Every structure is written in structure tokens, then in C-alpha cells.
Amino acid sequence: MYYDPIKKSLGDVFNRTPLLRRLFYQLLDLLLLRTWHVHRELRKWGKGRADEALNILDAGSGYGQYTYWLSGQSPKWEILAVDVKDEQVADSNRFFRQIGRTNAQFAVQDLVLYQQPNSFDLALSVDVMEHILEDVEVFRNIHASLKDGGMLLISTPSDQGGSDVHSDGETSFIEEHVRDGYNIHEIQQKLRTAGFERIEAQYSYGEPGQVSWRLSMKYPILMLGYSKWFFLLLPFYYLLTFPLCLVLNWFDANTKHDSGTGLIVKAWK
Fold this sequence. Notes:
By secondary structure, the chain is α/β, with parallel strands linked by helices.
């Protein structure tokens, strides 16, 4: 299934007013399990640093929900959010101007080529690397763009069932993915090749998270891919499934997993 047309349709709905976009971000924060894991790690990184003037790179910003969250943590944090999609970048810049968030800026950039040496204290890459074939080049560019001691935070599918691939004969649930998922040792080796020395990796989307993902993401996406009329049914669907998904997300984000369909990776320069 091609996910981009569905994402565009959702963007068209929620970009109509700043209030709708804020609501969209809040819904994504609650429904997307990866957000629970990413926010947890960002809180650890930012603890006690709200008064510091820090520079952050959102590498592959998408809808801009992580830039929105980070820009609200401290007015002293300056965020540069880059993405290859002109329309999303323009929409995000317009929204952030409308709400007066002056510490965030969006720009069109290709991560395979983009490099800004020794500029950032933190780089964030959430569900981006599974879309880019030249991953080591991207890791090298981010490594060069970080200041000494800067951290890269990655969320990406694993090879333990990421992209809903569980055997050699299956293909990714999302057609835009160039890889089904990373082996936990493979991604650490690629980061070392790019210059990172200290690396920590752990699984996300354990058993609770996999159930939540199917209920909150896979089944609704399949329905929307079949017909846009399912937009009308989504509120009723989530009215039934939302409470269970919240409980499952909490358990997944607060439990260590021996295996999982996602990875959370931190690497320091």
C-alpha cells in the first residue's frame, strides 16, 4: 500500500485551520506509539536544559509534529526542520508563523546531500531511514552536522517484523519503504562506519505495541486506502479502540523488550 496519498489526504483535512492542526498533532501524539518512545527519550535529553540555547535538527520532519513539540519545550531551542517535500515544508512554515512559533523553521533539503558542520546539539530522525537507500551517507552527514557531544535519536522499524514483514516471502506494508527494517546490530555498525562511537539501541513495539499498531494504524490505513468514505467512520472506530490503544501504548513505552518490530537508537558524536 502507498502511504503518501493517505498522508496527503489527512494533511488536506487538518491543514485547514491552526486549531485543526493542533488537534491533529495531539491525536498523533496519543495514537502513534513511536511518539511515546521518542518523547520519552527527548525528555531525558532535555532534562535541565530548558534555559540553554540549543540547536536541533529535525531530519525528515513530515507533518512537523516533533518540531511542534520541541519548539514548545523551550523558546531558547532553535529547531531547523528539513524534508524533501516542498508542499509539506510550505504548509509547516505557514502554520508555525500563524501560531507565533518563531524558534522553528522548515526548509527543503535532501538528507543524502545536506550537511551543516558542527551546528546541532541534537538531531532527530523518526521513521525516516526506512525510506532512504543511502543510509550511511545520511548518517555521515548528520554526524558532521552535530557538535561534539551532540546526539542523534532514531526511530525506525526493525527486522523482527517491522513494516509488518514476518517472513522472507512477505513485502512491506508500506510501499514507500526501501527496507523492511534494520537488524539491531546492522544499524549500530552503520552508525560506527559514519563516525559515531557511543551507540545505544533498544527494541520498541513489543507485543503490546504490535497489537496497538494494528488497531490504531494498520486497520484504519487499510480502510482509508480502500475508500476515502471511511473518514466518516473513523471517529466511531476510534471511539471503540482508542482507550485500549492508550493502555497498550503505555505498557509498551514503559517496558523493556527482548524483541520488537521497532528500534529506538541513540548515537553520540
